[in-house]
Amino acid sequence: SVIAVFSGGPWGDWAWPEMCPKGSYASSISFKVEASQGVMEDDTALNGIRLRCSRSRDPSGGNTAESQSGRWGHWSEVAHLVGFTLRVEAPQCGLLSNEVATTSARFACSDGHVLEGPGSTWGQWGGWSAQCPRAACGIKTRQDPAQGLKRDDTALNDLNELFCC
């Protein structure tokens, strides 16, 4: 089955789904985030989400599932998950606006804890996805490619689906 939200940014193309190897599940997650670049600079905020896959409750497995990620930012520490919601800044639509789209993500853990990525505080939180009955094992994102010099980059726009196993 698949769980989804529909609150992401409007730019970019859907990337390929990336799945954990057969028989494994997403035991933890890591975020790729670009820090604020300051006034009059181009921000991208959340650039990627990576699932760490394992075959047991030991999250130290070596496989990952990462749908396409932007080139900016750094990867965070890992955490565990079963559902998600996104924080998205609505299109600014101004001549000098700096569009960023998805700015952060929250993931629900099977033990009830909520993990929030180290994204920015811009935008509003959307609704929560349904929860995977047992575990997540794949991810599909929408990524806006680099626009080139003097253009407005948004990087990760949407995490539309986590695949449940």
TrEMBL record:
InterPro entries attached to this UniProt entry: VOMI (IPR005515), VOMI_sf (IPR036706)
GO cellular component, one term: extracellular space
Top-level lineage group: Eukaryota
Protein name per the record: Vitelline membrane outer layer protein 1
Organism annotation: Aptenodytes forsteri
Taxonomic path: Eukaryota, Metazoa, Chordata, Craniata, Vertebrata
